[in-house]
Amino acid sequence: MTLTMTAMAPADRDFPWTEEEFLALDEIADRVELWDGDLRVSASPTPWHQHVITELLIALRLPSRERGLRVHSAINLRLKPNRIVIPDLTITSAIDFHERVVPSDLARLVCEVTSPSNAATDRVLKMHYYAEAGIPWYLVVEHVTAGLWLYRLEGEKYELDGVAEQGETLRLVEPVTAEIRPESLLP
């Protein structure tokens, strides 16, 4: 298998990718993440997934700005050397908008919208990676219902801070102050 990009590169090599090789891929249509030397390629999110992310970005945009923060969708986030992921949404402090990769110490909250094919990855592996990187808040949006699960970092692990299902409101006080109703995210 090969990836279509500025310079062709095999994705099924027998040896690990370095961060330098990963960054040389340039911009491509697929979502490519670097997980400890392995490339993880996934297709672009579904329209439902993208709609939920957009609505969440809109809901968090002004509260983020009021705190001097910025909210981004699908940025390259370096959790550690050779581990670069693409959260669905990230709230950061000031970043260099010309850099291709944002260091995780600037991330205040990351969000993943689950799908049937990645729910376990988002709830277990990525949650562990984000906690290990020291990102203070993790928000998971459930597929279909848009149920919201907010976690705060306590020591080295995330603890559940709040849940909101349809008809309920998730109230955030950190890193921004906002109220989000799951049904407001749905198409």
Give the count of helical stretches.
3
**Main sheet: which strands, in order across?**
5-8-10-11-12-13
Percent strand equals 35-45%
Instruction: Kindly name the structural category.
Output: alpha+beta
The number of E-state strands comes to 15
Q: Which overall shape is indicated by the principal axes computed on the Cα atoms?
A: globular
End-to-end CA span: 35 Å
The description of the largest β-sheet is: 6 strands, mixed
Rounded radius of gyration (Å): 16 Å
Helix content: 10-25%
Give the SSE order as H and E letters: EEHEEHEEEEEEHEEEEE
- The average pLDDT is 87
Contiguous runs where pLDDT drops below 50 for at least 5 residues: 1-10
Report what the structure shows.
With 187 residues, the chain is of the alpha+beta class. The chain contains three helices and 15 strands. Residues 1-10 have low confidence and may be disordered. Strand 6 (76-80) and strand 7 form a beta hairpin. It has a six-stranded mixed beta sheet, sandwiched between helices. A five-stranded mixed beta sheet has the order 4-3-7-6-9, covered by helices on one side. A two-stranded antiparallel ribbon has the order 1-2.
